[in-house]
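Schema walk-through. Below, the input block comes first and the output block second. Nothing else is stored per chain. Lengths vary across the set, and this one has 167 residues.
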Amino acid sequence: MLRRLPIYVAAILAATTAILTPVVAQSGARHEHKRIERSQIEALEKQWQQAVLTDDTPAMDKLLSEDYLGIEANGEVVTKAQQLDHMKNRRFVIDKLQTSDLKIKLIGPVAIVTSLAQVEGIVDGDHLKGAFRYTRIYQRVPSGSWKVTNFEVTPATRMHIPPPPPA
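--- output ---
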């Protein structure tokens, strides 16, 4: 025979369930929202890569915010207009761009992306080939879309190889 719980225990259980059910639902909704945002940023990263490889200036124009600032491997700071001008004038031509080690950190309306890129191309008439680490920062704008606000690239002189997992 089942024993009845004292009324105060039943009340506590009912109140706890009423409080925790929406919290668990919100947690699931937040997790799904982050998953969707991460997918959006991954898609934008592919668009960026395609725009760079095909010199697609209109696509790059849509990706960059009006206040975009980029720091190139030589330390030069470029605005959106300068970045687009470099593409139009073929000052910066990338023939090969393979990325790996993609990491996306979401903080409210900001996404910070880091990656390792193997790059081949021509910059200001000089051959370019090597590994580079980059950081790209996206911001969600009032329309709901994401725009690249900042970019920085750093030569990766030594490849970092993570240690093997513990046995």
